[in-house]
Amino acid sequence: MNTKKIELLSPAKDAEVGMAAIDHGADAVYIGGPSFGAREKASNSIADIERLCRHAALYDAKVYVTLNTLLYTEELERARQLAYDCWNAGVDALIVQDMQLLDLDLPPIPLHASTQCDNLTVDKVQQLESLGFSQVVLGRELSLKEIREIREKTTVPLEFFVHGALCVSHSGRCYLSQFIGNRSANRGACAQPCRLPYDLLDADGNVLIKNRHLLCLKDLNNSAHLEELMDAGITSFKIEGRMKEADYVKNVTAFYRQKLDAIFERRAEYEMASRGHCQYTFEVNPEKSFNRGFTDFFINGRQKGIDSPFTPKSMGEYIGEVTWCNPLRMELATDKTLHNGDGLCFMNENNELIGIRADVVNGKTVSCNRPHGAHRGARIYRNYDLEWQKQVEASTGNRKIDINLTLAEIETGYEMVAVCRDAINRVSASVTCEKITATNPEKATENIRKKALQWGDTSFNPINLELQFAEPRLIPASVIGEMKRQLVEKLINALIENHRENREIRCTDTSQLMTCHHCIRYANGMCSKETGQKATDLFLRPVGYPPLRGGQGGVTFRLVFDCRHCLMYVQN
């Protein structure tokens, strides 16, 4: 049966957060490059992106770079060069908004249509598909019914936000920040005026609602609808948050990884889009991370209660109510364990958010060093769990790739073979040594198995070991250890290289005239790997031929160099 790969796509503020996302179960991450990303404060160097790409490739996970601001004409050449830098660094796709990029001679890197393109209709997605986009990020406002209709009339892979902050405006069509403070959301500089308090007036100037966050929405949480979304045609589930720290990304990624894996257990037609499985050492709970309360937005049509009019700040998890209090102490009805240093909050009787620190906790009694202003019956939330925070910060995700092992004797010694579960990646390592017949076969075999199956803190988890000996052998631990060391290095290199070799390539027939292993730079002593100088584009001009197109000057061809893969492209 053909299975459909489902992608969990997590945000990356920087390379470290991106690697944390991968380690905690992401199939892909999206990250800002040095410029032209829709979060100007979340930029990253190409060197850092390359480091992230290498880590992701080990797990066959993907890295997408956001190049999704609107561009000025004078910026197009820089954007074009950035696209090449990303491709050479190992990036799997660019997320773009500005259609001018389609007219540039880009590398064969896949392009994803950003949600900033306002992708809300069948016609729009059909248009993007016809332009060659490899994936389309749908607008958050769509319902399941509308998503199904788009899927029925298109074939391009569809991506959909399932968690995180919500923009009240259609993405790409908000100009309020530009109007108020000359900070354009479409240039990555949104000042978030939607989070400010406003008064609501009638035509005569009468105040209908005073000092409320009327444009502020709760945060999105569509975890209850993942299976419905899959069946409607979504293949990439996106978590918002390119300004979020690692603790948020670890927790929310792990939450959706568990949700998706549970579905895959029941639905064999779906599978994860990368390799490796994780183990978590903290309580996975999205309510413990930043949130303004949750809504599933318009997934089942228009509904009340999607806004957060009283505060744009994080409330955290609900833990109980105040049963008794004085100005410096409160007793709570809660089933949660509280800790000294926890952050708590509540809405006072004027619907104002009050934050307090639990300085001293004694069971269900909380003492504060400053008056807190709580009242009996107040609903208490915890927006900072000190002990949980420590556990998340220490978490590595422990992501492992399952492998099968074979240990056999060869003429000169022993050989160990490792094969990934996909049966595609196979590596071997051998050691020349003396063969010793075991005098206690049962114990010798037990020791061999024990040592061969211990892979410690590597990225690999052996699930089976087959022994192929002519007679029982006694193999020193150092011999087995050396073969495992070789296998780890070879597996890492093979998995990373295979991912990069199998990257999807966008069709560029309109401009790509040749793809060559022959390199003019290399043939003429100009190879960047040999000279250490950057391989800028060159041009070819036919000599002695009449003009190939109209005009007096003939034509020149651009030579573009993919130095990582030693390829040269001839473009018109």
Overview features:
25% helix; 7-stranded antiparallel beta sheet; TIM Barrel; 572 residues; globular; 8-stranded parallel barrel; single chain; 26% strand; alpha/beta; Thrombin, subunit H; 4 domains
Describe this structure in words.
The chain contains 13 helices and 28 strands.
Question: Quick summary of this structure?
Answer:
With 572 residues, the protein is of the alpha/beta class. Helix content is 25%, strand content 26%.
Count of DSSP H/I helices: 13
What count of domains describes the coordinates?
Answer: 4
Shape: globular
Sketch the major β-sheet: 8 strands, parallel, barrel
**What radius of gyration results from the CA coordinates?**
28 Å
CATH architecture identity of the largest domain: Alpha-Beta Barrel
The helix/strand class is: alpha/beta
Q: CATH H-level name of the largest domain... which superfamily?
A: Aldolase class I
Please write the CATH class name of the largest domain.
Alpha Beta
Mean pLDDT: 91
